[in-house]
Design goal:
The strands form 2 sheets. The protein has a 6-stranded mixed β-sheet with strand order 2-10-9-4-5-6, with no helix packed on it. The protein is globular and about 40 Å long. The protein has no helices and 10 strands. The protein is mainly β.
C-alpha cells in the first residue's frame, strides 16, 4: 500500500495561482501514470490531469491551458501548477496512481482544499 500526502492548497482570489504537491510513502511516480483528481461538494471525484512514466500528459478540458502537471523523481513528488483559477475550481484535490481509462489504484489521501473566492 502507498499513502499520499497532498499539500499546497488554500484560499486564492479568482485569477490567482497555486501549486499543489503530492508526496508518496514510497517511490512510485517514475514507474506509473499519476493523476491529480478533484472533488467538489456534492459532486463526483473527477480526473484533472495525468502524467505518464514517459512524461506524456493529459488535461481535462476544463483546466487545459491553465494547469500544468509535472513530476520530480528526485523529490518523489507530483506537482500541479494551477494558474488563472476560477471559482469553479474550488474543490478538494487528490493525487493517485491512475489517469484516463485507469481506475485509481490506491486508497485516497486527505487531499488539499483549494478555494477560489473573492
Amino acid at each position: 500500500q502507498v499513502q499520499f500526502v497532498e499539500s499546497g492548497g488554500g484560499l486564492v482570489q479568482p485569477g490567482g495561482s497555486l501549486r499543489l504537491s503530492c508526496a508518496a510513502s514510497r517511490s512510485i511516480f517514475s514507474s506509473y501514470t499519476m493523476g491529480w483528481y478533484r472533488q467538489a461538494p456534492g459532486k463526483q471525484r473527477e480526473l484533472v490531469a495525468h502524467i505518464t512514466s514517459s512524461d506524456s500528459t493529459y488535461y481535462a478540458d476544463f483546466v487545459k491551458g491553465r494547469f500544468t502537471i509535472s513530476r520530480d523523481n528526485a523529490k518523489n513528488t507530483v506537482d500541479l501548477q494551477m494558474n488563472s483559477l476560477k471559482p469553479e475550481d474550488t474543490a478538494n484535490y487528490y493525487c493517485n496512481r491512475g489517469g484516463v481509462g485507469l481506475v485509481p489504484w490506491y486508497a485516497w489521501g486527505q487531499g488539499t482544499q483549494v478555494t477560489v473566492s473573492s
